[in-house]
Amino acid sequence: PKSSAPQLLLLHSNRFQEMGTGHTAKKPGARSKNKQFKRSLWLCRRDKDIDQIHDEIEKSKETGKPIEFKYDDELPGGGQFYCIETAKHFADAKSLADHKKTKTYKRRVKNLQKEKYGQDVAEWAAGMSKESLPPAHAT
Questions:
Q1: What is the pLDDT of residues 97-139, one digit of tens each?
Q2: Ramachandran angles phi, psi of 111, nearest 5°
Q3: Cα–Cα distance between 16 and 6 in angstroms, integer?
Q4: Cβ–Cβ contacts within 10 Å for residue 92, how many?
Q5: Which of 61, 83, 98, 120 has the maximal Cβ count within 10 Å?
Q6: Per-residue pLDDT tens for 45-87?
Q7: Is the dihedral of CA 59, 86, 52, 50 positive or negative?
Q8: Exposure b/e, 99-113, CB count within 10 A at least 16 = b
Q9: pTM listed for this prediction
């Protein structure tokens, strides 16, 4: 006679497991060489670029209003604790103050102090600038 109890499988560590319900999650590091997985995660974790932050700061100087957010339950801390330089939200004032002591924050501030790149700099770097060379043959 067949029993209604699930069949059990003896594992090496003397633990029982039902057949057909194995470990479904991937092992840590199993996706380390999966290029498509890396591409899908790259964009969602990406920070704002420096030129985007420059634009936000310039816009706030033009209008004369600081960058502020209305209360939003979706954002950490309701969106009230925002770091302009790194474009990140924080849960409370203490975590924002701690963030401003970190190396990543200081590095971003240093990069923001540099002059913003423009189209003329990009053309110069690509070798598209017009140089005034001396004549090849002096007559």
A1: 999 999 999 999 998 898 887 788 888 888 776 667 788 887 6
A2: -70, -35
A3: 11
A4: 12
A5: 83
A6: 777 888 888 888 888 888 888 777 788 888 888 888 888 888 8
A7: positive
A8: beeeeebeebeeeee
A9: 0.55
